[in-house]
From TrEMBL:
Family, per entry: Belongs to the aldo/keto reductase family.
Matches recorded under PROSITE patterns: ALDOKETO_REDUCTASE_1, ALDOKETO_REDUCTASE_2, ALDOKETO_REDUCTASE_3
Alphabetical list of PANTHER family matching this protein: 2,5-DIKETO-D-GLUCONIC ACID REDUCTASE, NADP-DEPENDENT OXIDOREDUCTASE DOMAIN-CONTAINING PROTEIN
Lineage: Bacteria, Bacillati, Bacillota, Bacilli, Bacillales
Protein name from the UniProt record: Oxidoreductase
List of residues binding substrate: 117
Entry keyword annotation includes Membrane: no
Site entry: Lowers pKa of active site Tyr: 84
NADP-dependent oxidoreductase domain sequence ranges: 32-268
Keywords noted in UniProt: NADP, Oxidoreductase
InterPro entries the record matches: AKR, AKR5G, Aldo/ket_reductase_CS, NAD(P)_OxRdtase_dom_sf, NADP_OxRdtase_dom
Record: active site: 55
GO MF annotations in UniProt: oxidoreductase activity, acting on the CH-OH group of donors, NAD or NADP as acceptor
Pfam families with a match to the protein in the record: Aldo_ket_red
Length: 281
């Protein structure tokens, strides 16, 4: 798998090119932090930005995108922008309306990827029909889901005419998601990791530190490189420019098969986020 730099892409099953690496903005407040982190990321080569309606920062993310495009002489087509429909808006008409609201806040004509944020029982199929409609109208380049387990995907695909292109889930060395990764690969659905660094909880891990020392890299860089090598798109969040640069400095080394095995062995099926089978929001 040739992943040479921060702009390298994977091809989704509908032919759309999605960057392997991007910036996440979960818990980044509307305002200067969101604007500046988006601008810093794009300045340093990032081409993928991931937000969501519930993050409450789409307006600032959109402003950051517009400023970065003009400052770096880029066009909208150079970027890959993702947002997500929130649980309260899951329904056919309400999902269509939520999409328009996100576009308006972002100040964009279209999204590259739009996701159902959580698999709310009894609601996600209607929302998916709305995503299929928008996709068929050419309003979105790709559609997908977030936090879907295997059984959710099977249930969705049973009645859908379009298969999800992406499933974005919590994934890190303590939650390696091997079964889900294998299922999504088999069905040509791209897995994407949110919270790849387990919200900083892995940075003192002795196994990861040992691998990091061997490669003269940080623990964060080791984890993000592992994501790519197992075939998972990753979107680490940071508001600090030096960290945004560091996170993306992972294309000049490769983990050995033994390194990957060691990291895989850290799995404990531990989550920092909600359980997709047991959430109430």
């Amino acid at each position: 798998m040739m992943i040479e730099n921060v702009k390298s892409t994977t091809t989704l099953h509908n032919g759309v090119q999605m960057p392997w690496f991007g910036l996440g903005v979960f818990k980044v407040e509307e305002g200067a932090d969101a604007i500046d982190s988006v601008k810093a990321a794009i300045k340093h080569g990032y081409r993928s930005i991931d937000t969501a309606a519930i993050y409450g920062n789409e307006s600032s993310v959109g402003q950051g995108i517009r400023e970065a495009l003009s400052e770096n002489n880029l066009s909208r087509e150079d970027l890959f922008i993702t947002s997500k429909v929130w649980n309260a808006d899951l329904g056919y008409d309400s999902t269509l309306a939520a999409y328009e609201t996100s576009l308006e806040k972002l100040g964009l004509e279209y999204l590259d990827l739009y996701l159902i944020h959580w698999p709310v029982a009894g609601k996600y199929k209607d929302a998916w029909r709305a995503l299929e409609t928008l996709y068929n109208q050419g309003r979105i380049k790709a559609i997908g889901v977030s936090n879907f387990q295997i059984h959710h995907l099977e249930d969705l695909m049973k009645d859908s005419t379009i298969k999800p292109m992406v499933n974005q889930v919590e994934m890190h060395p303590k939650l390696t998601q091997k079964e889900l990764l294998s299922f999504t690969k088999k069905h040509d659905i791209q897995l994407e990791a949110w919270s790849p660094l387990m919200q900083g909880q892995l940075l003192d891990n002795s196994v990861l530190k040992g691998i990091a020392d061997k490669h003269h890299k940080s623990v964060a860089q080791i984890i993000l490189r592992w994501d790519l090598q197992v075939g998972v798109v990753t979107i680490p969040k940071s508001t600090k420019e030096h960290r945004i640069i560091e996170n993306a400095s992972i294309f000049d080394f490769e983990l050995t098969p033994e390194d990957v095995e060691q990291i895989d062995a850290l799995n404990e099926n531990v989550r920092v986020g909600p359980d997709p089978d047991n959430f109430n929001f």
